[in-house]
Amino acid sequence: MRANFKGRDFITLLDYTKEEIETILNVALDLKRKRAIGEPHLLLSGKTLFMIFYNQSLRTRNSFEAGMTQLGGHAHFLDPQKIYSPALEGDERAYSTERVSDVARVLSRMGDGISIRIYGDPVGWIYGKANYLVNNFAHWADIPIINMECDKYHPCQAMADILTVKEKFGGFSGVKFVMSWAYSPSVHKPLSVPQSAIIAATMMGMDVILAHPKGLELDSDVIKASEEYAKKYGGSFSISNDMKEAFEGAHVVYPKSWTSKYNIPPESEKTEMEKTEELFDKNKDWICDEEKMKLAHKDAIYMHCLPCDRGFEVTNKVIDGPQSVVFDEAENRLHVQKAIMALTM
Ligand code: CP
Predict the structure, then answer these.
(1) Whether 195 and 143 share a structural domain
(2) Residue whose CA is closest, atom 4 of ligand 1?
C-alpha cells in the first residue's frame, strides 16, 4: 500500500481504506511507545492546528492540544463566539458571522490544519447540517480538516475505540462488539459516536450487534455501510431491540445514549423533542449494570466515550469496576489523534 495521507481531510472513516485505518493504528501505537519511553517525536514542529469548538469538550480539546505540544506544534483554540462565527451561506448575520468559505481560506494561509466540533444547537438540531458545514470547510480549505465530532461522525473517537479493542484482545477477529443505546435524562446526545463505532468495528471485521429501542434507529446509510463492511471483511452485523439479548457472550459492550435522528426544531404542537423525551422515558431500564455485565463474556470490557451519565447509562459499580476500560479509551484519543495529525499535516 502506498502511504498517501498528506493533505487529506479526516471527516469520516468511510473515506479511508481498511489498510489506511490499520496504518493509523500502527502509527498511534508507535507514538504511544515513544511517549512512554520519553523518545522525542517532534513531527509537526512549527505547525499550527486551528481548533474551532461550537460545543463543549474535555477529552477532544485537551487531547488535541496536548498532542500538538508533544508533536512540537501548536494547537490554537477558537471559540466561535469570540471570532466572527463561521456560518453557511443563508445563516449569516452582519458583522457577527463570517462565511465558512472565507474563514477556511483565511486560516489556510496561516496554519496547517483546521479541526471542527459542531452538532446540535449551533445547527438547530437539523440532522446532517453540521456534517455539511464540516464538508464545506473541507471544500474551501487548502489544509486538512479534522472532524472533532459532527452530527454524523466522531471518527477520532472511533479510532480510539478500535485501538483500545486491539490492545485488549490482540486483534479483532471473533470479537463480539455490542454498541448499545442506554438511557440518559438528556435527549441531546448526537448519533456520531455509535455511527462511527459500528463503521469502525465492522471495517475491522468484528461481530457487531447494534442494540436500541425501536424509534432510535441510526442513519440508514451508516447501517448499509456497516453491513457491506461486515460482508467484505469477514465479520457480521445485526440489529437487536433487546439490550440483554445483545449482551449475551459479548466481548465488548459500549452502552451510551443518543438522540432520535428526527429530533428537529418544533413545528407541531407536540414537538419532536417532546416525542423523543417520551421515548427515552419508556426505556429507563436500558442501563448497563452488574446484572447485564454477567450476561457478557467473562473477559468482557465495558467501553464509553465519556462523559457518561452515571446512574442512568451505567452504574458506578460497572464504570469503576475491573471490566471498565474507559480511561484507556480516553487516553487513546491522544495517541490516535497524534497519528492522524502527523500523517495528514
Ligand atoms: N468523547 C469525547 O469526545 O469527549 P469530549 O466531549 O469531552 O471531547
Answers:
(1) no
(2) 59
Number of other residues whose CB lies within 10 A of the CB of residue 145: 23
Specify whether 338 is located in the same domain as 318.
no
Q: How far apart are CA 128 and CA 181, in angstroms?
A: 20
Number of C-beta neighbours around residue 146 at 10 A: 25
Distances in whole angstroms, Cα of residue 96 to Cα of each of 80, 152, 230, 264? 10, 27, 46, 25
Q: How far is the CA of 307 from the centre of ligand 1 (A)?
A: 7
Phi, psi at residue 193, to the nearest 5°?
A: -65, -55
CA distance 196 to 146: 14
Structural domain boundaries, residue 321: 157-330
Residue 309's φ and ψ, nearest 5 degrees, are -100, 95
Calculate ∠ Cα 217-139-97, nearest 5°: 85
**pLDDT value of position 2:** 61
Same domain, 279 and 253: yes
What is the CA angle 148-101-98, rounded to 5?
Answer: 90
Q: Please identify which residue in the block is written with the cell numbers 471490566.
A: 323
How far, in Å, are 11, 111, 238, 290 from residue 207 at the CA level? 24, 41, 9, 23
Strands 176-181 and 207-211: parallel
> Strands 97-99 and 207-211: what pairing?
unpaired
- Residue 148 CA, closest ligand 1 atom number: 3
Distance (Å, rounded) from C-alpha 174 to C-alpha 255?
20
Amino acid at 271: T
pLDDT (tens digit per residue) in 31-66 = 999 999 999 999 999 999 999 999 999 999 999 999
Residue that is written with C-alpha cell 459516536 in the block: 193
Q: Which of 59, 156, 184 to mutate to test the pocket of ligand 1 (most atoms within 8 A of CB)?
A: 59
Q: 98 pairs with which residues across the strands?
A: 86
Read off the pLDDT of each residue in 168-190 and give the average, rounded to a whole number. 97
Sign of the Cα pseudo-torsion (110, 116, 120, 125, in order): positive
